[in-house]
Amino acid sequence: MKGMSLIVKTITNIVIGFIFIYGVYIILHGHLTPGGGFAGGVIIAGAFILRFLAFGKGAKSEKKSSTTASIFESIGGLLFVGIAISGLLLAGTFFLNFLPKGEPFYLLSAGIIPLCNIAISIKVGAGLFSIFLALAAMKYVMED
Amino acid sequence: MIVFASCIILFLIGLYAIVTKRNLIKIAIGFVLIEYAINLFFALVGFKRGALAPIITQLDTPHNFVDPIPQALVLTAIVIALGTTALMLTIILRIYSRYKTFDIAEIKKLKG
Amino acid sequence: MIELYLFLAFILVAAIIATEIKDLLAAVISLGAVGFAVAIVFILVQAPDLAIVQIVVEVLTVVIFVAVILRTTHVDETIRKKLSGTQIFSIVLYAFFAILFLIVMFRSLQEMPDFGNPIMRVASEYIKLGLPKTGGANLVADVILDFRALDTLGEATVLFTSAIGVVALMRKSGRKK
């Protein structure tokens, strides 16, 4: 049987949505409450890793999700640099907070900080998940 | 004073594991302990007695916060530490799959 | 602050166990105990951001360590063996430098500000200007993504590099036997 026992699979199915939503909450409220891109990215990577550990996958789908994780990591990095360069192009300073600041304590405030949080969370989450996938693929490597 | 000293003793325990142990996993554990010691030291340096966490909840009140800069430095360092630990363990795995041992003295003997 | 001292003592004891125990799996569990105690200390020194990150990262660290140990072996065979010449030399060298380090440490801790009274010359500016300049209420997020965003870009690069390293070391194709 692939993966773990039925109890673990059922509990994972129930819990994983909550973990994911908690991660998204941590990311989006990073400029108002404790948390931010780093913490939320690691939580989302943890949700994927939990799913991976509970259900198990074959070698083929592992390779596929590894490619997807690499693509997402590149997207996150490019988004972060893109925000920085758009500050340079629009206002003349790298990493300038060029968006309007908005009302304090509201979700849409603080200029580029929420966008940076999202970019970093994609980057960190996909990076850690691809690290984990590479380490999980070692059972095929060790068998050689 | 005693609080900072305990961080430095944790650093010395990690350094002891790195320098004197012969098992590769124990050496990796020593590296992780040193990372914890440094993160803890930074967080403790920024602590201010009777102050709050650096998150503004109301306007127009006098701000009495702990130092946010060490926290910002450590926040990124913790995540990076996970990445470097994973890289280190990958190299250890490669060494194991080649020599079938974690003992660095044996590995030195088997080389060549 | 008595609980802070208790947790610091717990960290030191768990760290010694992690380095000295024979079973590698138990050593990794002790390492996890150290990490979670560090997270609690972060809460006690008013750093909730760090505590969240530390808890999640600690879970992943233990998972990766356990994955490696389960694939290989979990007995530390080196611990009961007789000490070799190089090992005795390294212990003596370590003891010498540790004593030297402790002397320097006590000298330099005399110069540092006491625990609980940081100087905060730069931080007072950041606390004053954080909300008006960036609009974010979480000052740690303001520092890492606005005042010191280049630093964060560098750290993201380091993470990218380590991910590339892991993937390249673990790849299956293109390796010569």
Summary tags:
heterotrimer, B: 112 residues, mainly alpha, Helix Hairpins, 4 helices, 71% helix, 0% strand, elongated, C: 177 residues, 7 helices, 76% helix
Structure description:
The complex is a heterotrimer of chains A (144), B (112) and C (177). Chain A is an all-alpha fold and 144 residues long. Helices cover 73% and strands 0% of the residues of chain A. Chain A has one domain. Chain A has five helices and no strands. In chain A, helix 1 (6-28) runs antiparallel to helix 2, helix 2 (37-55) runs parallel beside helix 4 (113-136) and helix 3 (59-91) runs antiparallel to helix 4 (113-136). The mean pLDDT of chain A is 81. Chain B has 112 residues and is mostly helical. Chain B is 71% helix and 0% strand. The longest helix of chain B is centred in the C-terminal third of the chain and has 32 residues, at 68-99. Chain C has a domain at 119-177. Chain C contains seven helices and no strands. Chains in contact: A-B, A-C, B-C.
Average pLDDT confidence of chain B is 84
* Span between termini of chain C: 58 Å
**Pairing-aware structural class of the strands and helices of chain C?**
mainly alpha
Q: Oligomerization state of this entry?
A: heterotrimer
- Principal-axes geometry of chain B comes out as elongated
List the helices and strands and how they pair.
The complex is a heterotrimer of chains A (144), B (112) and C (177).
Chain A lengths: L5 H23 L8 H19 L3 H33 L21 H24 L1 H6 L1
Helix pairs in contact in A: 1-2, 2-4, 3-4
Chain B lengths: L1 H19 L3 H22 L22 H32 L4 H7 L2
Chain C lengths: L1 H19 L3 H21 L3 H24 L13 H27 L9 H14 L4 H9 L1 H21 L8
Helix pairs in contact in C: 1-2, 2-3, 5-6, 6-7
